[in-house]
Amino acid sequence: MTDSRDPNTAPDARPAPGTTDRPLRILIGADTFSPDVNGSARFSEHLASGLASRGHDVHVVAPSAGRKHGTWKEVYDGHVITAHRLYSWRWYPHDWLRFAMPWRIRQNSARIIDEVQPDVVHFQSHIIIGRGLSTEAEKRGIRIVGTNHFMPENMLAFTGIPKFLQNWAIGLAWAAARRSFLRADAVTAPTRRAADYFEKETGLHDVYAISCGVDASLFVPDFAPHTENRVIFVGRVTGEKHLDVLLKAIQLLPDSLDVKLDIVGGGDQLKNLQTMAQQLGIGDRVTFTGYVTEEEKQRLYTRATVFAMPSIAELQSIATMEAMASGLPVVAADAMALPHLVHDGENGYLFAPGDAQQLADRLERVLTLPQEELDRFKNESLRIVEAHDIQRTLTTFEHIYRGEPVPEAPHPVSSTPPA
């Protein structure tokens, strides 16, 4: 991997496929990809379609979504990619996760790499597909880029591993990550905090912080005075999102605010949270939409007053960036990468993770802001999210794929001068 933290210095790596602007043949490896709904899958999808929109020949290796497997064309955001769908099994402790066969991954990776002859291999996790692709690409002297979206703690609930063995399992997972990412010429993570976390856990260094990016043009801010107090959460309905804290916070808000909550997304905790909402006496004010279309999701963002993100395990949070692109103030847990997006007192508020009362207090503060102050928060969200434009992300990865100097990413700073 690269030996320099300076983003303006070219990585000291194996020869790049060239420094011209010719289209590249890019092979992306993803253990989770569409139709899966999660941050890593969505980033991989938008990366693939965005690169295809720029004229690159994009191939994606991912588990099959069902019994059908093989190679065919798939269309995302109106752009065609070549999908290599590997025979997969369903992981039944999880509500949708499928995985390719670990004992066949090197054979499959070798076959696909030899067929595609890529200029660069970009893997999105080390678990199965990234391990196979990085091993076979290294043998062939092909440039390798690795991006980490993985937190082993998020998977523990679905492994059945007893609690007393979980720290041991986490250590094994990070050791496996280190072995795969050591093969990469460049390693990235979605934020600086995520990069630092990865470096600490693996002992690797010089990880680039590159935003997953968001296409702000797809989202519609609404500055009309709101006629109802509506809180929205978008994401997987799973344990690490701590949605129980959000439900408790809604129950703690004054009845006079008549707050409505939309929980947009699906997951293994959906039924449990529906039951909890009824037990808290807020069942008539909470809507669990399940999975929705992109268009419906955008509409739900636009009509909301504030976005809430109680999760403590966000390496970036694409949903939070989408909410900001919709001009929403954000109330988020002061954990992992969320403080990169939420500037306390400027475009929203941070709260102590797990503290339902503090979350309720912060939500109440936003919901009772005078319109002028609310508009200031909304405009600040729009300003901060500009630094996460998907086109900038695509350009940065193009430079990395070619082994060129990487443009320094802008870092949104507080708009309030220090006292």
From TrEMBL:
Q: Does the keyword DNA repair apply?
A: no
**Per the record's keyword annotation, is Nucleus included, yes or no?**
no
Q: Name one Pfam family in it.
A: Glycos_transf_1
Task: Recall the GO molecular function terms of this protein's record.
Answer: glycosyltransferase activity
The chain positions of domain Glycosyltransferase subfamily 4-like N-terminal read 37-217
Keyword tags = Glycosyltransferase, Transferase
List each copy of the Glycosyl transferase family domain by range: 224-380
One GO term (biological process): carbohydrate derivative biosynthetic process
Q: Where is this region: Disordered?
A: 1-22
Q: Which domain of life is it from?
A: Bacteria
- SUPFAM superfamilies membership: UDP-Glycosyltransferase/glycogen phosphorylase
InterPro entries membership = Glyco_trans_1, Glyco_trans_4-like_N, Glycosyltransferase_grp1
The name under which this protein is listed is D-inositol 3-phosphate glycosyltransferase
According to its UniProt entry, this protein's organism is Herbiconiux flava
